[in-house]
Design brief:
Elements: H1 7-17, H2 24-34, E1 39-42, H3 49-60, E2 63-67, H4 71-83, E3 88-90, H5 97-108, E4 114-117, H6 119-122, E5 136-141, H7 164-167, E6 172-177, H8 182-191, E7 198-201, E8 209-215, H9 219-229, E9 239-243, H10 247-259, E10 264-267, H11 273-284, E11 290-293, E12 306-311, H12 318-325, E13 335-341, H13 343-359, H14 364-382, H15 387-394, E14 414-416, H16 420-433, H17 440-448, H18 453-458, H19 474-486, E15 490-495, E16 498-503, H20 507-511, E17 520-522, H21 541-558, H22 562-565, H23 568-577, H24 593-614, H25 626-638, H26 643-650, H27 654-667, H28 679-692, H29 697-703, H30 710-718
Parallel strand pairs: 1-6, 1-7, 2-4, 2-5, 3-4, 5-6, 8-13, 9-11, 9-12, 10-11, 12-13
Antiparallel strand pairs: 14-17, 15-16
Length: 728
């Protein structure tokens, strides 16, 4: 915990939001805000970006203006702030004149701490007039990647936001985004002309997400299987999003799932505004659990308890993939991201990007950039490298461990095919002997030895390659052909509206035996039978489900989205700790004073009743599996990463990492702490402890002239010989 943030700030944080600690990047951003400095904040979805401007706004007063292009997200944030007692508002174009006057009056009287507006509204001439007599401390620009032409969602109006400086010259500017490569970050700094900004970049890794890329086979069957795996013990489906490429695909898949009895709604831009709003509200309020949508859905959807995201077709880029999968597990609990990959979707996406660029008269460099981004996501899908590592390194960061334990590659669900070279040669030979005049399905029919009418009509049963891969499945062959297209052993060309499979530029090297290709097989054809538990700590599943029922009933009564009332993380921790008294609810992370005041009696009564009925003990500590501690912290500490790096990578506070480091030191697993504490600092701490005759941290901190942070004192004291006493 940095000493530059006042202790009373953390008291406010605990009281309002129920948090006692901040992540390292949040500390940096909030420090800048409290010092009225500009900042660029890059954090993955669910990393706590909004707290970087909300908490300073509450702590220091005045008004913070938040610019966001996402109407649904603005509504969610206003509702969420009001839930914890923070006065917030947003500008709505459909407000009556009387409502607009009332809002303007509240702003002039400085009753609003956080005010949300769209870029279009903020750029209107009368916008600054709303804040006459008000002290605007900060302008927060959310989705700041929209300012960059190299970003994945460029919006020209974002570049005009620089005009706000003229109207609010004393306000600091905080630009925030979840997805920005180094090139985009530089463009944001330049376009918004941030002044000596604090740049805070969290790890792009989302350790609570499990990534899988599965060959696309039967999309309906695969989606049903994924939804079923994420049901609770009582049969309740978890929240999920399924992304499709085309509107027609959305309609078809949504209708098919509905016909099978699933709680599903469709969403795409071809629906009327009323239909889209109904679908969105139904999902947010958990009246339906699964949305099948084009990528038009999800921008601004802040539902924190989405447990799975499925891409039924390939996204446009790694940035899009990071943002779209980032809508899963925003509460920090475990979630799954599955891509159903097919090379034909890549061709469709490529044609779509080129067509769109031509319609907008985009320069060639822009089109080439889009196609390069598509190639990056194809490489992500078809290269057997840790998915977490691939994402983190794409955004210019280093991934510290060899095995993430949370993707299909590292979980051993993908294997190298024996005789890859022979299989590839047989496929290439078949394409050659068929004159490179047929599509993928016809090639597979010949390789499998099909007795279809088309085979007989064309006389293909006489080919030497007929039936030479008869022992394999149709899905395997389709996947291997996709891999060979990616490896440029094969290529797809269009002729008279037909897609023809032909030899690629690298085919000869395989046919002549000078190159040994590698083909991969998904060991588990469908994803595993059971989804991971929600949290890394142990909790009572039946109690969690009862708490979720209570939350839904209460949210309906209070007309608020359930996840805004309380997150799944809060409920899981309640089901783990099972507090018996009101004052023990404060130990639950994310449960603030207002929420405890409003709902504490009900929660304690519900938990007490359940524990009495089931004879379950109350007031339990959080219990983490040893393997989690070892894998998540041990590997990084032994690689000598800084505490800040580890805290950022695991989305925890530095003090949490320090706790595990101290444990390793006391066990004798780590003997050299010079990476984290200098020899001089260790000596000063030990000398202070000798003089005081005590291991109490606060007296040692004061004896060291308040120059050595508490976490370093803990580490130094752990290195003190046992005969000298223990730390307090």
């Amino acid at each position: 915990m940095s000493t530059t943030i006042p202790a009373r700030f953390f008291q406010m944080l605990q009281e309002v939001w129920g948090f006692s600690e901040l992540r390292q990047a949040q500390v940096q951003a909030i420090q800048a805000a409290l010092e009225d400095r500009d900042a660029l904040v890059v954090m993955p979805t669910g990393g706590g970006k909004s707290l970087c401007y909300q908490a300073p706004a509450v702590f220091r007063g005045g008004c913070t203006i938040v610019i966001s292009p996402l109407i649904a997200l603005m509504k969610d944030q206003v509702d969420g702030l009001r839930q914890v007692g923070v006065p917030a508002a947003r500008w709505e174009s459909n407000m009556s004149n009387q409502e607009k006057r009332a809002l303007a009056n509240e702003l002039r009287q400085q009753k609003i701490r956080v005010f949300f507006a769209s870029p279009e509204r903020a750029l209107q001439k009368d916008f600054a007039e709303l804040f006459e007599g008000n002290h605007v401390r900060m302008i927060a620009i959310d989705e700041a990647h929209c300012v960059s032409q190299w970003g994945h969602d460029f919006r020209p109006e974002y570049r005009q936001l620089l005009e706000l400086r003229k109207h609010f010259p004393k306000a600091s500017v905080m630009a925030l985004t979840a997805t920005a490569t180094e090139r985009v970050r530089r463009d944001i700094l330049d376009q918004l002309q941030l002044r000596s900004p604090q740049v805070s970049i969290s790890s792009f890794d989302r350790p609570n997400l499990t990534y899988r890329v599965i060959p696309q086979a039967n999309v309906l069957a695969q989606c049903k299987e994924i939804i079923d795996r994420h049901r609770s013990a009582s049969g309740q489906a978890a929240g999920g999003i399924i992304y499709c490429l085309r509107r027609a695909d959305v309609d078809q898949l949504a209708e098919a799932l509905q016909a099978c009895g699933y709680s599903v709604v469709g969403y795409h831009a071809g629906m009327s505004p009323e239909q889209r709003m109904q679908a969105q509200d139904a999902f947010i309020n958990e009246k339906v659990q699964v949305v099948v949508a084009t990528v038009a859905f999800g921008m601004g959807i802040d539902r924190s308890n989405v447990r799975f995201v499925v891409h039924a077709s390939i996204p446009k880029s790694m940035e899009h993939y990071q943002q779209e999968t980032g809508r899963a597990g925003r509460d920090g609990l475990n979630a799954e991201c599955i891509m159903l990959f097919a090379m034909r979707d890549v061709a469709s996406m490529r044609n779509l990007l080129i067509s769109s660029a031509n319609e907008n008269s985009a320069p060639k460099a822009w089109t080439d950039s889009l196609l390069q981004q598509l190639d990056e996501i194809v490489s992500f899908c078809k290269t057997p490298v840790c998915r977490h590592r691939k994402i983190v390194e794409y955004f210019g960061q280093r991934y510290p461990t060899d095995n993430c334990g949370a993707c299909d590659v590292c979980l051993g669900e993908i294997d190298v095919v024996k005789d890859s070279k022979v299989i590839a040669q047989k496929i290439l030979s078949c394409v050659h002997r068929m004159g490179e005049r047929f599509g993928t399905l016809a090639i597979i029919d010949v390789l499998l030895g099909s007795n279809s009418r088309d085979i007989q009509r064309r006389g293909h049963e006489s080919l030497s390659t007929f039936g030479i891969l008869k022992g394999h499945t149709r899905n395997e062959l389709r996947d291997w052909i996709d891999q060979m297209i990616h490896a440029k052993l094969l290529k797809i060309t269009k002729e008279s509206n037909y897609s023809l499979l032909q030899l690629g530029p690298e085919a000869k090297s395989v046919l002549f035996g000078t190159h040994n290709p590698v083909l991969l097989r998904t060991v588990i054809s469908q994803t595993p039978e059971a989804a991971k538990p929600l949290a890394r700590f142990a909790y009572d599943q039946a109690l969690l489900e009862r708490l979720m029922e209570w939350r839904q009933e209460t949210a309906d009564r209070e007309k608020v989205a359930p996840y805004l009332l309380m997150s799944d993380g809060v409920l899981a921790e309640l089901a783990a700790r099972r507090p018996s008294k009101i004052d023990r609810l404060t130990a639950v992370n994310g449960l603030g004073a207002k929420q405890i005041g409003l709902h504490g009696d009900q929660l304690v009564g519900l938990i007490e009743s359940y524990c009495s009925l089931k004879s379950v003990p109350m007031d339990q500590p959080l219990r983490f599996p040893t393997s989690y501690v070892r894998e998540s912290y041990g590997a990084r500490l032994k690689q000598r990463q800084s505490l800040e790096q580890i805290a950022s990578a695991l989305n925890v506070a530095v003090s949490t990492v320090t706790k595990y480091l101290v444990e390793y030191i006391l066990e004798g697993a780590i003997e050299d702490v010079s990476t984290w504490v200098s020899d001089l600092e260790v000596q000063q701490v030990h000398q202070a402890a000798e003089r005081l005759g005590s291991g109490q941290l606060t007296p040692i901190f004061e004896a060291c002239n308040s120059q050595i942070p508490y976490h370093k004192i803990r580490i130094a004291m752990a290195m003190r010989p046992a005969s000298c006493g223990s730390q307090g």
